[in-house]
Specification:
There is one protein chain. The protein has about 180 residues and is mostly beta strands. The protein has one helix and twelve strands.
């Protein structure tokens, strides 16, 4: 390979990399003669720029805490845990962002066992022995809910399938 062809190859590679780098684009909004609202990443006659909020990111984590005062290991009957409310793919309309979660366990909850509800990959509150949970002030959008059953030693006994819900809050900032 000659120096000239090497230089051309490097230059082509650099230009390709620069072209592939995503760039920040403004978003513009305008209304046409028929009253239809349009959005675009390029300016248009009569368009106004829209300030978009920063992207919200989360990292899925799953934490089970171990109790320091360990109880002796106990054999569990095959327990099944299931979210019975809300149903998978449910659309929930609630201005305050409240979501009720009901858990079913078969056979019944053993002494010392606790349930941990997980919203969008993050445990919500402390694990508890109740099967009814009330999640409050959840932002509108798509969310996943699951639950885990842990024994008195903090060992995972069973977990639910993940339920996806769609929360609609017609107005944000309404008085609860």
């Amino acid at each position: 390979m000659t120096t000239t062809s090497y230089f051309k190859s490097c230059l082509t590679l650099c230009i390709s990399i620069i072209c592939c780098i995503p760039s920040y684009a403004d978003v513009y909004r305008w209304v046409d003669e028929q009253g239809t609202v349009h959005f675009s990443d390029s300016p248009h006659l009569g368009a106004t720029p829209i300030n978009l909020p920063d992207i919200q990111l989360y990292h899925q984590t799953h934490v089970l805490t171990q109790r320091k005062d360990k109880a002796p290991p106990r054999k569990h009957a095959k327990q099944r845990i299931k979210i019975i409310q809300p149903k998978n793919q449910a659309t929930i309309r609630n201005n305050q962002g409240h979501v009720s979660v009901s858990i079913e366990i078969e056979p019944k909850l053993n002494e010392g066992d606790k349930i941990q509800v997980v919203l969008d990959g993050k445990p919500i509150g402390e694990s508890q022995s109740k099967t009814q949970f009330s999640l409050k002030n959840i932002n509108r959008g798509t969310h996943t809910i699951s639950a885990t059953l842990v024994d008195a030693n903090g060992q995972l006994v069973a977990s639910t399938r993940t339920v996806t819900i769609y929360l609609h809050r017609p107005r944000i900032g309404m008085v609860p």
